[in-house]
């Protein structure tokens, strides 16, 4: 919001130093982003009066103007402007003045020097608005107000300081000069004078000239209209044009300028229609029809939807409510009768419409922040008053006011005790009343407190705490004493979930991984890449190697459970109403897609040590409520990591990733885990597994493996990559810091080796479970230390070698005891799993 201090002085005396005003506004919560000073560069520029005009003796298009600039001083200057006449008061620049070069493409100051023009010496010049930086007009000399003091420095007459306020969204009142005047006056205890609104309305009743109907009162709580007949379209008065220009708005004509002026003065956007172009003499506020077309004032043709609110007449839309008017009903040079609109529109509706049309205007900017319906008729009457002053005509009697659901202004009861409770500051009741009245509130003493009705511009004042904040702002936040808390301090609370998340991050970093944070927004197309070929079923894979075993019912159920938990891409995701782009149209239902995209970008830059992890959420839709948010840990790696020696790299495989998972689960204190081979379209069929917790009602906690080649091809990745996903919603409640401690054994262990040949379909977990069951209670540890496939091992078979540790807590085992148990294990393996013993 650009605030001209010259304009502001018409409402409140601004006699304080500018730096003090800036400081107080900023400390009260409204930052002054920039300060523009007009007149600081106007040295040697004065107010002059043209006393004589004559033709240049050597040029037909030039004039010699004799200018009086006070105390009997006159000067003759050469000018090409043709809009001068004797008696005009004009800005006169003498030699040494610095003016803007009107012909330079970028603003550039140049020093004025005496010059001889066609044989006549000119030691000064009369200036245009552009040369002074007061506008873009360079067609003629700037004609000053007839009351400007001859000989006065121009800076005293036209100089101005403009404050560029950074207005917060809740302070829509500061988008109006009256609101800023009240704010500054309240801070400095100065009086405020608002314009009196009074005019003659000699025309016919307004409701006999036009009818107003609100079809959607939820989007337009109030609509008011006034009619002025017989106006004369012309240029606005100089004072109005100067104020609009200072505020950053280009003057157009007196009717349009009045609507812009009132918007800047009161913060209420208005729109002027050519009344004679309103078909059927009726205004209808309704939603647009899907596909309805409208040509706007900027010449663009827009296709509207039912989400857009429009102002329509009997035949069609004539404006987009709160955003921009239509070209068919605009005010032109031939307009005679004007209908002025002042309405209150739903801020969310205006924001969505402006965004969907990619059209932000001064009006939509104000409506988006919310305006009270009570402001509409006040601003409308002010506009009619000004329009009669600058454009003439006759005002219709009364206004048309459609207000189907009136809303009362809030009444707030405030006591000194409440102020002290909120601020920790004792403020006497008279001081409270004075501050609130200076802010424009209506205040009535009631018992030991105040009954307060906020001004109609202050939509942010609704409860007692808001009034306490206003009192603190005006008194100054620095007046609030610093006091230490009294009484016993509350015990610190520990958020166990966050502690565990911090533990997980620590484990990942210790293992050499780097944390990433990705967007939760994605698209259906990006989610669909996780399935590889369209329509692939669980168990299918594009891996070009030995075909895996046909999926059993159990493996299909496991793959389905993994899909539902980690990759529910067939679930309809939660959509955004107004996505910024097609790539951010919905919330993700899986974190694997985000991880693969991040891996792809990083693998372009480095082939080694791309080891990433993320703790993020997925969003699963639920009917008639907010989506379910599940927190997931996702680990993603490339194909290689650094080796022990400089420049050496080591291939990453499934077992390295499993080590990551095991280290994490051990740190979290989880119980016994079972790894089940997984056949899932996201993963390589022979290098992936689901992780289950033994004896749990919801056993699935994680999934890991090498990504299927077709899936990684969909993400444009040309090397093996690995993923680990952990459902933290299941894991975190089970995490524990309790550990069972076993005493150091007093008796030595006995370690026996076992080498077997087994079918490739038998899992290592099955073998270990059998050894543990048959060898109980003497088997203390089982370690798989060798895996081999190839000659002379038959095809479809694998050679495994184990270290088995036997130990008893109460005695030293004899060779006979160990041999007996070891023999039972061998026989069980042969009988139950069909293994072949290697001697």
How do the strands and helices of this protein lay out in sequence?
Blueprint: E1 2-4, H1 5-8, H2 18-27, E2 31-38, E3 45-56, E4 59-68, E5 74-79, E6 89-94, E7 98-100, E8 109-111, E9 115-117, E10 120-122, E11 124-126, H3 129-132, H4 154-158, E12 160-166, H5 177-188, H6 206-209, E13 211-214, E14 222-229, H7 238-246, H8 254-266, E15 270-274, E16 282-287, E17 293-295, E18 301-303, E19 309-312, E20 317-320, E21 324-325, E22 338-344, H9 347-356, H10 362-367, H11 375-391, E23 394-395, E24 400-402, E25 412-414, H12 416-423, H13 429-438, E26 442-446, E27 449-453, H14 464-475, H15 496-510, E28 514-515, E29 521-522, H16 524-528, H17 553-566, E30 586-587, H18 592-603, E31 611-620, E32 628-637, E33 640-642, E34 649-651, H19 654-667, E35 673-677, E36 683-693, E37 700-707, H20 709-714, E38 722-727, H21 728-734, E39 750-759, H22 764-775, E40 779-788, E41 797-806, H23 815-833, E42 836-837
Parallel strand pairs: 13-16, 28-31
Antiparallel strand pairs: 1-12, 2-12, 3-4, 3-6, 4-5, 6-11, 7-8, 9-10, 14-22, 14-23, 14-24, 15-22, 16-19, 17-18, 19-20, 20-21, 25-27, 26-27, 29-30, 31-32, 32-38, 33-34, 35-36, 36-37, 37-38, 39-41, 39-42, 40-41
Helix pairs in contact: 7-8, 8-11, 12-14, 15-19, 22-23
């Amino acid at each position: 919001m650009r605030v001209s201090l010259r304009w502001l002085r018409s409402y409140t005396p601004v006699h304080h130093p500018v730096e003090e005003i800036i400081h107080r506004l900023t400390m009260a919560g409204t930052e002054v982003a920039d300060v523009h000073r007009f007149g600081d560069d106007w040295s040697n520029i004065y107010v002059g009066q043209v006393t004589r005009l004559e033709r240049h003796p050597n040029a037909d298009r030039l004039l010699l103007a004799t200018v009086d600039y006070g105390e009997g001083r006159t000067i003759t200057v050469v000018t090409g402007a043709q809009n001068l006449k004797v008696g005009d008061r004009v800005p006169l620049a003498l030699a040494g003045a610095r003016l803007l070069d009107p012909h330079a493409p970028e603003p550039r100051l140049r020093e004025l020097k005496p010059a001889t023009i066609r044989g006549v010496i000119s030691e000064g010049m009369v200036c245009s608005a552009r040369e002074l930086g007061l506008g873009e007009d360079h067609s003629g000399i700037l004609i000053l107000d007839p009351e400007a003091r001859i000989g006065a420095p121009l800076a005293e007459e036209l100089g101005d300081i403009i404050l560029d306020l950074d207005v917060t969204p809740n302070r829509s009142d500061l988008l109006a000069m009256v609101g800023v005047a009240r704010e500054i006056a309240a801070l400095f205890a100065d009086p405020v004078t608002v314009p009196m609104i009074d005019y003659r309305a000699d025309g016919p009743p307004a409701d006999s000239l036009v009818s107003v109907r609100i079809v959607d009162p939820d989007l337009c709580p109030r609509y008011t209209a006034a009619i002025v007949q017989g106006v004369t379209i012309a240029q606005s008065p100089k004072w109005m044009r100067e104020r609009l220009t200072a505020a950053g708005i280009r003057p157009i004509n007196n009717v349009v300028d009045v609507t812009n002026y009132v918007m800047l003065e009161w913060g209420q956007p208005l729109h002027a229609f050519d009344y004679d172009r309103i078909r059927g003499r009726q205004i209808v506020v309704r939603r647009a029809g899907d596909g309805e077309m409208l040509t706007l004032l900027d010449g663009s043709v827009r296709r509207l939807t039912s989400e857009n609110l429009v102002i329509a007449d009997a035949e069609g839309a004539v404006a987009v409510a709160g955003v921009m008017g239509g070209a068919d009903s605009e005010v032109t040079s031939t307009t005679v009768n004007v209908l002025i609109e002042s309405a209150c529109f739903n801020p969310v509706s205006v924001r969505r419409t402006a965004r969907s049309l990619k059209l932000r205007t001064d009006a939509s900017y104000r409506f988006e922040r919310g305006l009270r319906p009570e402001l509409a008729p006040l601003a409308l009457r002010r506009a009619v008053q000004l329009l009669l002053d600058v454009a003439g005509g006759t005002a219709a009697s009364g206004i048309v006011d459609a207000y189907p659901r009136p809303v009362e202004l809030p009444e707030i009861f405030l006591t000194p005790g409440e102020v002290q409770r909120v601020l920790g500051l004792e403020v006497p009741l008279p001081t409270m009343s004075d501050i609130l009245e200076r802010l424009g509130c209506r205040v009535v003493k009631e018992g030991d407190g105040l009954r307060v009705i906020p001004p109609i511009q202050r939509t942010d004042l609704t409860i007692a705490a808001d009034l306490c904040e206003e009192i603190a702002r005006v008194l100054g936040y620095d007046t609030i004493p610093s006091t230490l808390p009294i009484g016993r301090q509350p015990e610190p609370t520990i958020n166990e979930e966050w502690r565990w998340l911090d533990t997980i991050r620590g484990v990942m970093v210790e293992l050499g991984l780097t944390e990433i944070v990705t967007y939760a927004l994605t698209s259906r197309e990006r989610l669909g890449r996780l399935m590889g070929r369209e329509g692939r079923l669980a168990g299918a894979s594009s891996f070009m190697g030995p075909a895996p075993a046909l999926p059993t019912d159990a493996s299909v159920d496991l793959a389905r459970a993994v899909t539902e938990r980690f990759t529910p891409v067939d679930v309809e995701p939660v959509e955004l109403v107004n996505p910024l782009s097609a790539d951010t149209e919905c919330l993700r239902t899986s974190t694997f897609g985000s991880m693969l995209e991040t891996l792809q970008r990083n693998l372009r830059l480095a082939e080694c040590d791309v080891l990433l992890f993320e703790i993020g959420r997925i969003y699963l839709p639920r009917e008639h409520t907010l989506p379910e948010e599940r927190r997931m840990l996702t680990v993603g790696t490339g194909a290689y990591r650094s080796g022990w020696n400089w420049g050496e790299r080591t291939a990453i495989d499934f077992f390295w990733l499993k080590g990551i998972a095991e280290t994490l689960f051990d740190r979290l204190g989880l119980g016994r885990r079972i790894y089940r081979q997984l056949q899932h379209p996201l993963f390589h069929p022979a290098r992936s597994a689901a992780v289950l917790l033994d004896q749990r009602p919801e056993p699935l906690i994680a999934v890991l493996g090498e990504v299927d080649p077709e899936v990684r091809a969909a993400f444009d990745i040309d090397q093996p990559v690995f993923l680990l996903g952990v459902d933290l919603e299941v894991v975190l409640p089970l995490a524990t810091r309790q550990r069972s401690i076993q005493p150091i054994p007093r008796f030595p262990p006995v370690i026996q080796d076992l080498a077997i040949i087994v079918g490739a379909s038998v899992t290592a977990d099955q073998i270990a479970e059998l050894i543990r069951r048959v060898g109980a209670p003497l088997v203390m540890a089982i370690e798989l230390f060798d895996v081999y496939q190839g000659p002379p091992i038959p095809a479809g078979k694998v050679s495994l070698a184990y270290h088995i540790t036997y130990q008893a807590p109460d005695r030293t085992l004899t060779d006979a005891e160990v041999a007996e148990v070891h023999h039972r294990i061998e026989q069980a393996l042969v009988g139950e799993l069909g293994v072949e013993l290697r001697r």
